[in-house]
Amino acid sequence: MAETQNDPLLPGYSFNAHLVAGLTPIEAGGYLDFFIDRPLGMKGYILNLTVRGEGVIDNHGQRFVCRPGDMLLFPPGEIHHYGRHPEAKEWYHQWVYFRPRAYWQEWLAWPTIFAQTGFHRPDASHEPMFRELFAQIIDAGQGAGRYSELLAINLLEQLLLRRMEAVNESLHPPLDHRVREACQYISDHLSDSHFDIASVAQHVCLSPSRLSHLFRQQLGVSVLSWREDQRISQAKFLLSTTRMPIASVGRNIGFEDQLYFSRVFKKCTGASPSEFRSGCE
Description:
The chain is built from 10 helices and 10 strands. By secondary structure, the protein is α+β, with helices and mostly antiparallel strands.
């Protein structure tokens, strides 16, 4: 039992750390040739990069085949049901389990293949960079030095930022810098209980009507809708990763009235803040 618990490649490992990383070399008929099955997911995130062969990810009857270069991100609570593709001889995948730093939230909002499972497929010019960063994270994370875990976390942060950079490069046309600055301004002022578009427009030197037009044209939503999404997203993040009192979570995103915050949160998510937090535990 003790040996199993000390090997992160086998069931029973506690993952009681800020970061654990490794390579899982699954070969047909080998000792690792079984499906991971965690119906309730994990408390932290798992980032997975296929390097050889093929794997399959199942989620409520849906299936995704991951091939070399594919990166998958499983957030807390997401179903984990994956293994070697039955028709593939092998599935080698690098992985990182981690508890994110608070300011990583935006970098962890990936496009999904189903449910909340995120997906990124780097283009050919970026793939070697991601493979190398993964290898460095694993090397640092398995080190015994005093700063090994911190180094691994910083390398992971670099990987997430490199992905954001690659995504931004692929945007066509690029996001208008005034819309980008408006988004940053709104994100920096989520705790403001009094909000108006005029203050954002003034910050980016546009009229409110022009900003509203650009915002909807480039992001597909209104300024107010985008802000509301950010507020609820921040609330979900704080509820799932901290023990901050619900009233404090509400104030953090600009709700002075806890009851009003709870009503808005339930309207957007289908669960009250306390119910949402209980579901993440």
